[in-house]
Design goal:
The chain is mainly alpha-helical. It contains 5 helices and 2 strands.
């Protein structure tokens, strides 16, 4: 799947939750995480798996977005996004929504 195909797939999904998506941010997320988004095992976030949410917390929230939140605040944020996304949680959409909620567009664009 090309970057453009990944972008189009993610854009269609993101539009379910953000009617006026930040396409520049989404393209930047695709560029940064294309390998992860292409892999069938990592293309979706498994909200029911605690270890998966811990990885998102450590690798994305703390290491990439450099958030200054408590564990409880991060857990609440992850739960909020897990509940907001209906059905399978496309990782690109999940990361997009986290980035937007935290106002951390500057981490990518």
């Amino acid at each position: 799947m090309t970057h453009e195909e990944l972008f189009e797939k993610a854009l269609e999904d993101v539009k379910k939750y953000d009617p006026n998506p930040d396409e520049e941010l989404l393209r930047a997320l695709i560029a940064n995480y294309a390998i992860v988004f292409r892999n069938a095992d990592s293309a979706y976030v498994a909200c029911g798996q605690k270890d998966e949410l811990e990885r998102v917390k450590k690798n994305f929230l703390l290491n990439k977005l450099k958030v200054d939140l408590t564990d409880e605040e991060m857990d609440r944020l992850l739960e909020e996004v897990c509940k907001a996304i209906q059905g399978r949680k496309l990782r690109a959409t999940f990361y997009y929504l986290l980035t937007k909620k935290l106002g951390r567009r500057d981490a990518f664009v």
